[in-house]
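A favour between colleagues. Tell me how you read the following sequence-structure pair.

===
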Amino acid sequence: MRIALLSYRSKPHVGGQGVYVRHLSRELARLGHSVEVFSGQPYPDLDLLGEGVTLTKVPSLDLYAEPNPFRNPRPAELRDLVDVEEWLRMRTGAFPEPLTFARRVVRILAERRDDFDLVHDNQTLASPLLRVPGLGLPLVTTIHHPISYDRRIELASAEGWKKRFGVRRWYSFVAMQARVARKLPSIITVSESSKRDIVTEFAVAPDRIRPILLGVPDRFVPPAADAPRVPGRILAMASADAPLKGVATLLEAFAKLRTERDLELVLVSKPKPGGVTERLVDRLAIADSVRFVHGISDDELVSLMGSAELACVPSLYEGFSLPTAELMACGTPLVVSRAGAIPEVVGPDGLCADQVTPGDVGELVRALGALLDDPARRARYGAAGRARVEASFSWHAVAERVVATYEQTISDFEELTRADR
C-alpha cells in the first residue's frame, strides 16, 4: 500500500505523536508498504528514510518554538490566508495548529490523490480532513486519547478566572475534534481505556474504534551486568509543567522522602524557566537533589533509564504511556498511578509495579519508600516488566494490526463507493 501518514507536530522524544510516527512508519516499510509522512514542526526523526519512508514537510509558522514562543511573525513570513489565520488564532489565545495543518495538507493531498491508497491521520482531528474521502481516499485516524481530559485537569489546577478563560480558549479546538471524531469511519486507539474514554467524551460509536496497544523499540534493554543501578536514584519521564503528568505530586512526595533518605530525582523533561515546576522545586527546597535532563540521544536515554533504582509514573491520566512500557523494557521497577491505561500497560498490581491513587502524595510516599527498602521486590518487578514487554509490546505486531485495519477500511470504502454509484 501507498500510505500518507499525517502528523501536525511530531516532537521526536517528548509526547507520543512523534514517537508513534517514527516507529509505525518504519515497521510499515519493513512489511513492504511505502509511507510518506506529512508533518508540521517540530519534524520527526524517521528511520528507513529513502527505504520505504519519506518525509514531506508541511511548515507552519512555528509560533511556539523556543526561544521565542508566541512570537509575532514578520510580514514576509505570511505566505497565504492560512498563515494569517494561524497567527490571528494564536494572538487570541487559541491553539491553531491542528486546523491550519489540516488546511495545508488537504490542499497537497487534493493535488496528489493518485499517489496514495489510504490516508492515516495521527490525532489532527480537524474538520478539513473530512474532505479526504471525497478525494477518493480512505481515511483512518489514530486518537491517542481525548484531549478533553487534558483540558479538564488544567482547568482544575488553574487559579483565577483569567487563567481559566485562557485554558478554555487554548483548548477550544477540542470541540472541533469531538465533532470530527463522530464522523470518522475508522479509528485506531492505543488502549481499551482510551476506547472507553473516546466513546464517553466524543460520543463515538464503539464499533468504529479498534484498540491497538503500542510497541517498544528493540533498543530499550536492561543495563549490562557491569552497569549497576545508582543507589537512591528515582527517575521520571514527563512533561514537567503539564498538570496531566502529575509531576507536582511526585515532587511533593520526593521532598518528604528526602528528609529521611539520601535520594536523587532525575526528571527527563525540560521545565519552563520560572514555570510552575521550577517554582515548586524552589519552594520545597529540593533543588540540590532534583536534576532535569533533556536533549540526550536515544542511547543516553536508555542508559539513564537503566541506571535508576526505581522509576515513577505519577500521571493523572494516560491514554497509553509509552515511557511506562519503555522503563519496563529496561527492567526498571516501577511505582505508577492507577490512571487511564497505565494498569493495562503494567498488568495487575504487584506484577511489575506498585499502583497508587493518582494525586495522592501520602500514598506515593509510602509506595516509593517501601520499594526502595525492598531490593528483592525491585528485582522481581524489573524481571517481570521486561518479560511483559517481550510478550506484549512489539512495534512489528502493531504494524501488522494497523495494516489489517487499513485493509478493512479500504474494503469498506470501496463497498460504500459502489453503493453510492
In short: The domain at 230-392 is CATH 3.40.50.2000 (Rossmann fold). The first strand starts at residue 2 and ends at 7. The mean pLDDT is 95.
